[in-house]
Design a protein that fits this description.
24% strand; binds flavin-adenine dinucleotide; alpha/beta; 5-stranded antiparallel sheet; binds coenzyme A; homodimer
Amino acid sequence: PRTFVIIGGVAGGMSAATRLRRLDEHARIIVLERGEHVSFANCGLPYHVGGVIESRDALVLQTPQALAARFTLDVRVRTEAVAIDPTERSVRVRDLASGTEESIRYDALVLSPGAAPVRIPIPGVERGLVLRDLADMDAIIAAASTARRAVVAGAGFIGLELAENLRHRGLEVTVVEMLPQVLRPFDVEMAGLVAERIRDAGVELRLSTGLTAIEDGHVVVGDGETIPADLVVLSVGVRPESGLARDAGLELDERGYIVVDEHQRTSDPHIYAVGDAVVKQRFDGPASPVWLAGLANRHGRLAADAIAGTPHAAVPALGTAIIGLFGVTAATVGRTERELRDEGRDIRVIHTHPMDHAGYYPGATQLAIKLIIDAASDRILGAQAVGESGADKRIDVIATAMAGGLTASQLADLELAYAPQFASAKDPVNMLGYVADNLAAGERSVQWHELEALQADGWLLVDVRTEGENAAGAIPGSRLIPLDELREHAESLRGERVIVHCKVGQRGHTAARLLEQYGVTVANLDGGYLTWSAGVAATSPKGAA
Amino acid sequence: PRTFVIIGGVAGGMSAATRLRRLDEHARIIVLERGEHVSFANCGLPYHVGGVIESRDALVLQTPQALAARFTLDVRVRTEAVAIDPTERSVRVRDLASGTEESIRYDALVLSPGAAPVRIPIPGVERGLVLRDLADMDAIIAAASTARRAVVAGAGFIGLELAENLRHRGLEVTVVEMLPQVLRPFDVEMAGLVAERIRDAGVELRLSTGLTAIEDGHVVVGDGETIPADLVVLSVGVRPESGLARDAGLELDERGYIVVDEHQRTSDPHIYAVGDAVVKQRFDGPASPVWLAGLANRHGRLAADAIAGTPHAAVPALGTAIIGLFGVTAATVGRTERELRDEGRDIRVIHTHPMDHAGYYPGATQLAIKLIIDAASDRILGAQAVGESGADKRIDVIATAMAGGLTASQLADLELAYAPQFASAKDPVNMLGYVADNLAAGERSVQWHELEALQADGWLLVDVRTEGENAAGAIPGSRLIPLDELREHAESLRGERVIVHCKVGQRGHTAARLLEQYGVTVANLDGGYLTWSAGVAATSPKGAA
Ligand SMILES: Cc1cc2nc3c(=O)[nH]c(=O)nc-3n(C[C@H](O)[C@H](O)[C@H](O)COP(=O)(O)OP(=O)(O)OC[C@H]3O[C@@H](n4cnc5c(N)ncnc54)[C@H](O)[C@@H]3O)c2cc1C
Ligand SMILES: Cc1cc2nc3c(=O)[nH]c(=O)nc-3n(C[C@H](O)[C@H](O)[C@H](O)COP(=O)(O)OP(=O)(O)OC[C@H]3O[C@@H](n4cnc5c(N)ncnc54)[C@H](O)[C@@H]3O)c2cc1C
Ligand SMILES: CC(C)(COP(=O)(O)OP(=O)(O)OC[C@H]1O[C@@H](n2cnc3c(N)ncnc32)[C@H](O)[C@@H]1OP(=O)(O)O)[C@@H](O)C(=O)NCCC(=O)NCCS
Ligand SMILES: CC(C)(COP(=O)(O)OP(=O)(O)OC[C@H]1O[C@@H](n2cnc3c(N)ncnc32)[C@H](O)[C@@H]1OP(=O)(O)O)[C@@H](O)C(=O)NCCC(=O)NCCS
């Protein structure tokens, strides 16, 4: 029988191993795992810190014994692969308990070593904890049980999940982030909605602030200021565990991630790689790493398929990701406006603020949704959604539309399940399609960050909301003409350049259609007052501080 | 300016009117509505009966006054279109208050008259109430306020929503349904899960039972039995309000629904029609009516686009629909197994029972999902989902995949938003794709309704669950060999024909892969014990009674 060796026994590795067994009952399959556990729920770790997931055991989904019984897998924990010899097709393996080593020959090798938390080179970094596995989690829980004040460095997914869970345990928590926003896979005005929630929940958020040292009882940030902390967690990114691959001469990208083809094959035809250590082809844009469990599982299975002789090609990665914290959900797929503008791409952007279900049915809450579209082709390039309910559904639907190659305008045609407690007759996703269709047909819109320059250039800003709404907060320089009175003023605006705005963009659209037919050059402020406020708040010195 | 007349001022009609105004500021747009209200939330009506939606006003989304102010629409309520003269291009209109009539010439006419509840020809039918508009709702509420016992005839969406809401008000409720199941757009074993909930909630459900008379204080059903009732609601289907269209010589289908092309144009080039009165092209299968608000809204807009000279084609309808009642959600899209088997189509069917989110995160509940696939092409033909949480999301994703032309196996590649509180690393939809991929690759599965015949034909049934699970309930004629002991018995089964089963199909899959490699002819019982039990319960005389 053939021998298959798998390095890394969690998301990607164990998915490859079980699938391989189902495809080949007679092969010898050996899984090497440096840590104490295989098949554990990385994604659940932060929630045991906060006690949301009560049982530690619940995080360990499989044991070597169970995997042996069911799949005749030879699973070796506390066992490290220390070298690969591609010519000999063998792996050098060290039993970490005894220190003994042996070599194992393979017919095919799968690497799923993952990525390790980065430790930034600052004084006292060794005082900082990280979170990747159960041992790390145990250390954080132990520290948290005596700590009062925590600092989390890094406002990415894991950092924020940890911040929430430490807060949940009753600690005072400060999050320190180098970037001017939380959650890099979101644009600043969308991330700002999450930041607001974090602050409302009593977590101190310090953006545009670097951690410069960890000292006893406090950390030092950017300008020398100190923040008291008896627990410091570093969650500032990861680096691929590709040392073995590098030493074996496998092709890596410039950031050190392992390069594979669409069947997960590395530059060595007998070695496959999957998961966080691998660079992925992207739906739109350059190849890049994507650290997500779904892809690790999927690609693990694809590697097994290829090894067993029934290859399926991976599709380019969208990078769909989600976080729920302090009662709000933020989900994202594809590219951000920031990235695409940096690349000079010609895009259209839509912001909406629909209710998650019919407003007349109890419990409806407001979503903020963003859609990013390739201007020439109307292809969907990305989307983001933030809200208390239903953000996950809308991003999943849009991710599926992207996978199916639907254009933004075609979102209008989707038939999504509607009854008043679940959605609206025009689902928020349909509504994005309507707005996209109007833009594709030539309707002009203006982004929140473009407004000031256009006003300076002489465009009039007309607020078509009601007097009451205007009184409660208006954009500087705007003139109030409520929509239902706009017809009376339309002739007087003929020939002018006018930006109309309402609260969310919907009345602005009706206003724009109206004025245009009176010979006004008109644009609608995309997302209305709500998006403008969110953008301004998130980029003001106060928001960013 | 041109004159556009619209008959019917609710979902389809008013969507056409507002869009037309946005496209043509200067047209004369007249909306005729026979009833008291326009733009009301039909879909919310049942929930005001139960007091879930407290305010009656919340159900009226627009008024003629507001529509005049914003859209300069000439909206006439209590005004009926009584005849169309296609040659003259005029509509004869009656003011229902005064009885006066006038003729209005049109450049284009939009029909969105909807469909009216059917009144079955039985003695006492005039004692039965129906639910279509606010007046109907008021009548039901008035009757319910003094009634103790209600009978609802018809276990479709509206009938069941009403049953729930009457129960919610404290009435004793019996639902009487001619078919042997509730909710015709579902297959019987899926509908059975909803039926169970309805019964658990204390509603009496009488399937395969026709209403034969309504008498004072009771109704009479099929066999002459009487059921006490001081409130009777008929919700047994609708008929299209196509009398006007018929009289005008427009083409109707054999059931009386108005025939339109993909731009919603009837057989008269100046007359458009949308909504419940129209027969729709379907994604797969023959044209048919689809009584859904989303399509009425969408097609109303398309009619306006066509009239304004910027036509967009409608896409074939999927018929995505959903109901939530007594804490359970049931959603469906596309065709049912029942219909397709009746047509002799070669299909594959998958049932799964995944958790709506990671089992280790609190609050996970189990879904039942069904996927129906064209065997030759692997195209998705339909799906159904029932569960406490997340059914809407999965059906929306599958509906989107269908719209994008993804195959069933390609569901495995979807990148859906994953964090433990929202989904699993392999989302339930991905898992359907995995199962579909295995079936496409030749793995055999057996449906719950095929099992008995195969057993009779000599296939062995092997239960690969644990002893404990088997003891708690087993399929007649099965032999227990727990999965983890199956290898020891594999050789002894060589050459046999074996059906394996577990609880949901997942361990059965591993068992099937294993046995096949030992020369066993093997099939997996699709959906396992859970689907088999649901199917048997739903079709047993007791379940159907
Ligand atoms: C706290 C946390 C929360 C997360 N939350 C989410 C989430 O909500 N959603 C989501 O999609 N993703 C989430 N992720 C990311 C997800 O867990 C990863 O994308 C996924 O686990 C990657 O799988 P992998 O197989 O590449 O690596 P891993 O799952 O990290 O497994 C790699 C394993 O290889 C072992 N290994 C490495 N080198 C060797 C060697 N030389 N010899 C032997 N063994 C070796 C390591 O010990 C490790 O156990 C989270 C990750 C963490 C840490
Ligand atoms: C109780 C109930 C619950 C529902 N729940 C849902 C749900 O949860 N999800 C969903 O998708 N769909 C639901 N529907 C269906 C949805 O409401 C319809 O599909 C949609 O309203 C159809 O739109 P329409 O414009 O064709 O007809 P309608 O909305 O019925 O409007 C037609 C209007 O035309 C008027 N009319 C007819 N003939 C004339 C005439 N000759 N002159 C003047 N006026 C005329 C009628 O009075 C009527 O008001 C529900 C329907 C009901 C009744
Ligand atoms: C769980 C794990 C061991 C993989 O085991 P697995 O048996 O391959 O995966 P699952 O238990 O999810 O089962 C999937 C298999 O069952 C099949 N299946 C699932 N439901 C089924 C059903 N109802 N009927 C038939 N087959 C079914 C699938 O097709 C798939 O088999 P395939 O790969 O041969 O197509 C591995 O993914 C792991 O270690 N995960 C934990 C770590 C992790 O993922 N961390 C990150 C997230 S927190
Ligand atoms: C509400 C109703 C009057 C239609 O009015 P409408 O103005 O066309 O529709 P909406 O209020 O939903 O607004 C949609 C419009 O706003 C636009 N829009 C929505 N959000 C927007 C945003 N954030 N930015 C820009 N434009 C936006 C859409 O593009 C669309 O305009 P378009 O058709 O020109 O593309 C009609 O559908 C109706 O009567 N509904 C009630 C009856 C009903 O549907 N019953 C069944 C369900 S219970």
